[in-house]
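for the recovery benchmark. tokens below, seq after
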């Protein structure tokens, strides 16, 4: 039941991404996916395998649910966030969206914990919250740097033609 609900949620996220008006350049979207995948896979490898702060369920459907969350759901949510963030104009809306994305990511992790997909051993929700803040900030800084490089390349190509 949990796996079906989570897969439906993930499919809805993918459909939403396909249907929205994209503000980011396609290369920026690919960059976000790659950066988020790298950071998330490193983070979960450290906290689950190396340090054993979080234990992943041995049940196959819960393991699949967790891996879908790690590989598909989190990157798509972060990508949707950055697409929406580029459309926001006021500082209060940007601040509200920052808080909302962190709360949403923590809420999804808590749902997976409630379904016993993961178990906190020497961990708590605030550490996850700090990681998600780090994830959004790091991705934001790297995206800003990549966008600058992309714009410079675009200007160089236009200047030489």
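predicted aa per position
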């Amino acid at each position: 039941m949990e796996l079906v609900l989570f897969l439906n949620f993930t499919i809805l996220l993918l459909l939403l991404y396909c249907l929205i008006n994209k503000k980011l350049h396609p290369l920026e979207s690919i960059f976000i996916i790659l950066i988020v995948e790298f950071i998330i896979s490193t983070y979960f490898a450290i906290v689950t395998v190396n340090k054993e702060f979080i234990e992943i369920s041995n049940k196959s459907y819960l393991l699949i649910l967790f891996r879908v969350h790690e590989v598909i759901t989190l990157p798509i949510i972060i990508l949707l966030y950055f697409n929406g963030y580029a459309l926001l104009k006021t500082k209060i809306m940007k601040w509200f969206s920052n808080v909302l994305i962190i709360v949403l990511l923590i809420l999804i992790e808590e749902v997976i914990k409630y379904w016993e997909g993961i178990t906190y051993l020497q961990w708590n929700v605030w550490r996850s919250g700090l990681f998600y803040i780090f994830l959004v900030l790091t991705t934001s800084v790297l995206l800003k740097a990549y966008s600058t490089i992309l714009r410079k390349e675009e200007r160089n190509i236009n200047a030489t033609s």
